[in-house]
Amino acid sequence: MTTEAAAIPGLKARRASFRPWEGNTLPVLVIVLAIVGLWYAAALAMNWRGTADAFERAGEARSAPEIALATMGQERPMLPAPHQIVFELKKTVIDTPTTSRRSLVYHAWVTLSSTLVGFGLGTALGIVLAVLVVHVKTLERSLMPWVISSQTIPILAIAPIIIVVLGSIGVTGLLPKSIISAYLCFFPITIGMVKGLNSPDPMQRDLMRTYSASQAQTLWRLRLPASLPYLFAGLKVAVAISLVGAIVGELPTGAQAGLGARLLAGSYYGQTIQIWAALFGAAILASLLVATVGLVERLVNRSMGARTA
Amino acid sequence: MTAARRASVLTPLVLAGCLYVLMLVHRPGVAGAPGPLFWGLVVALWLASIVALSGLSNLRLKSRPADRLASLAVPILFGAFLFFLWEVIVVGAGVPSVLMPAPSAIARRFAASMPVLRDDFIQTFVKSVLTGYAMGCGAGFVVAILADRVPFLRRGLLPLGNFVSALPVIGIAPIMVMWFGFDWPSKAAVVVVMTFFPMLVNTVAGLTAAGRIERDLMQSYAAGYWTTLLKLRLPVALPFIFNALKINSTLALIGAIVAEFFGTPTVGMGFRISIEVARMSLDMVWAEIALAAIAGSAFYGAVALIERGATFWHPSYRT
Predict the structure, then answer these.
(1) What ipTM was reported for this prediction?
(2) Nearest-CA distance from B290 to chain A in Å?
(3) Which ranges does the record mark as transmembrane (chain A) (predicted)?
């Protein structure tokens, strides 16, 4: 589950220092290598039975080393070896044209588009809600407790309802999935933004009052700029769970397209390599999305003249 | 004092009006085809409730218990009014129950299918969630202690843990179903993986939270590693650990329910949701969601209560 993890920390460490033995690069690399090693060992152990049985059924007598080698190349292994997943990824990402239904890029794009629409909707909703909550006391006292307690509810459970209800009034395709994403991801943004909008200390607010600034001016000039770090922290969490929402939203529709559909189809037909490839695709997509938000954060900070701590 | 007077006059009026409308809407002649007068009444109630709520939430009460009561009453009344609107609109406008069942219908269905709900609850919550939660949090805690002891491990594991918590971990559900079969062990396995990393990251962060002065004090007492860990560093880490426990309580339920979408025996909350959605009996699905909501909030509330008892010394609980 964690071998793909090397991408982001590794990148960060390379940029940050030229002395890998001092940073986190070496420990991360060692642990990733250990995980890959364990993975191969586990693949050997878990696929042994199936491989040996297959040879027996075919009536071929094989020695132990031959079986060991064959465990790494099963078509439907219990646990595919890492290189099998890499080959599958290469096959479905690079070798297949992106318009084909067999291409992982095609499915990733289906999921990504509803993730992004949902993320946009959720961000807009979250920010508007936070601005309202900060300015209207009634909302703060009546709505906020519900927003918070709504998070103790397994919201993903209502995903099938949203899909089916919207489907029965004729809304299908991208929008229902996006609504699930939006519903999941507005929360961290609202919470972060409320905190951020309230983060300017009383002295700064008093200064705005001595300028006789209106509430709108205080919002634009003081509260919103001060809330940006909180906003981006929320956005990073939100974009990740937005992807989860889109993937889960693809499950109840019988899964025509998308990464969730690949997972479901893979589990129906026992195509383990396909499942793992879809999983890695989702992981790569998630890390790209989070990294993009981080990049936007850096650009915004720079353009606003923020000093790096 | 005007806000208080307005609130104290309007709130009972609005409550009485809502009860009257609720009775009205369930009459055979009204349900499905109420006149414009009825909708006018609902809109008037809506406006009045906004005024009443804003009056209530701007109240400044002298005594502390009364203030607590008011700040509790506002969200409860607000939520109750939302349910009232849901009921009145669905029943009044005659929305088909395939689209959106009324809360009263959901409550009836909930009461009528108690045995099914109990079985689903035991299968999903007691077996999958609690087992997986205990194992995942326990493993995360132990690995965090280990990682804290071995700095090399910590420097390697922490970036990975942070990275994994941004991944759609729930996607491993089909693999776990393949490995551990259709019954609850596969769901518990998903829950273990989902709860492990938040626990690991938070505990490691909590273990570094003890200040230098306190550690120096422990050293001057000639306290060893284990004494320092038990008497100083773990208590200081408790708020972080409980934070992870609270995050995990929600994650665990989500993980178990979604994992059941990938294949289960014929019992379980996720199984029931997906099967009843396919049969278009949405009142049962909503009853199941109500159960999930109750279980989720109760679980979270229980962890929060334990936290209050265990970290009573923390500044955020001192009054």
Answers:
(1) 0.78
(2) 9
(3) 21-42, 106-134, 155-174, 180-198, 228-249, 273-296
